[in-house]
Design goal:
Layout: E1 4-10, E2 15-21, H1 23-28, E3 34-38, E4 46-54, E5 59-65, H2 69-76, E6 85-90, E7 101-107, H3 110-123, E8 127-134, H4 143-149, E9 152-157, E10 164-165, H5 168-178, E11 183-187, H6 190-202, E12 207-210, E13 226-229, E14 232-235, H7 236-239, E15 242-244, H8 250-257, H9 261-275
Parallel strand pairs: 7-8, 7-11, 8-9, 9-10, 11-12
Antiparallel strand pairs: 1-2, 2-5, 3-4, 3-6, 4-5, 12-15, 13-14
The chain binds flavin-adenine dinucleotide and FE2/S2 (inorganic) cluster.
FE2/S2 (inorganic) cluster binds at residues 215-218, 220-225, 235, 237.
């Protein structure tokens, strides 16, 4: 059973880190891949990206934001508890090569998703400038890990509590204006990825984003995770989750993610009542 061997609360308890025993996945996983977890037999299947792996210890690390019923159930699991089910590694790994100068932009739990990709891009010899953003400094995660994984690190906060007072897009634009950049990887909330993509399009710089549509099976069977990429329909679970940002229909993705808002709210309220 996939046992939790380490657990940390981050960003004032809104984000949880779980290190989980999963020997074979830890040995096979590559940057950009995700797993699907279930808390119990009747639980929802929740996709989460591996923020780190440790093949020697046989563990993987996931970092998730508590947003609804299933992630609230996950939050109840303590060190020594088992997840009911864990499958992976899923998805197409990030294509890692030495392209030269890279900018990695991360926001919210997107920083956890970005971490293994940034680390691998630097290990491949790239000069990696990382730009991280959060509403305020106390909500920022993985600063030390991202510093170690990057050549240069910029912090941006909406309230000015640390680093640049403003959005990651300000620093992205300035960095693009002053450097010849070969690749941008942007992972975070949909509006962040959308606006990063609009900026890099103006500079004609290849840009990758990691998409998070609602998923069910995670293996290309159900069609739930379909996204529009240029004129094509793709399944994020097998064709992605990374795609060419300049071809992504971000507005459609946002609408599809909001399809079950009422049901998600009712489900969380009923769960909170049941454990109160
Ligand atoms: C490939 C992939 C990798 C992901 N990796 C991470 C990760 O590393 N860390 C992390 O915190 N989250 C990640 N997510 C998002 C995570 O799966 C959702 O937050 C989770 O499914 C919400 O479940 P819930 O029952 O707690 O919330 P729900 O009740 O299902 O939803 C609550 C709120 O979250 C939004 N939501 C629902 N599903 C998703 C989704 N798939 N993506 C984004 N928002 C969603 C809803 O619109 C709603 O506002 C990833 C998603 C995908 C597809
Ligand atoms: S989640 Fe079912 S096809 Fe991708």
């Amino acid at each position: 059973m996939p046992k939790i061997v380490n657990r940390e609360e981050m960003a004032q308890g809104t984000i949880i880190l779980n290190e989980i025993k999963a020997t074979r996945i830890s040995q096979k996983a590559k940057p950009g891949q995700f797993v699907i977890l279930q808390a119990d037999e009747t639980g929802e299947r929740i996709p989460l990206t591996m923020a780190d792996t440790n093949p020697e210890k046989g563990t993987i690390t996931i970092i998730y934001m508590v947003v609804g019923k299933s992630t609230a159930k996950f939050k109840e699991l303590k060190v020594g508890d088992d997840y009911y089910a864990l499958i992976g590694p899923l998805g197409t790994p990030t294509h890692i090569e030495n392209v030269g100068k890279v900018i990695c932009v991360g926001g919210g739990t997107g920083i956890a998703v970005l971490h293994p990709i940034t680390k691998a891009l630097k290990e491949a010899g790239n000069d990696v400038t990382t730009i991280l953003g959060s509403r305020s400094y106390d909500l920022l995660i993985m600063e030390e890990e991202m510093k170690a994984a990057s050549t240069k690190l910029h912090i941006c906060t909406d309230d000015g509590s640390k680093g640049h007072h403003g959005f990651v897009t300000d620093v992205l634009k300035e960095t693009l204006e002053n450097n010849d950049i070969d690749l941008v990887v942007a992972i975070g909330p949909i509006p962040m990825m959308k606006f990063c993509s609009l900026i890099t399009k103006d500079f004609n710089v290849k840009t990758l984003v990691s998409l998070n549509p609602i998923m069910v099976d995670g293996t290309g069977m159900c069609g739930c995770c379909r996204v529009s990429i240029g004129n094509d329909t793709k399944f994020a679970c097998v064709d992605g989750p990374e795609f060419d940002a300049h071809k992504v229909d971000f507005d459609e993705l946002g609408k599809r993610l909001a399809s079950y808002l009422d049901e998600e709210k009712q489900s969380l309220e009923a769960y909170e009542k049941s454990i109160a």
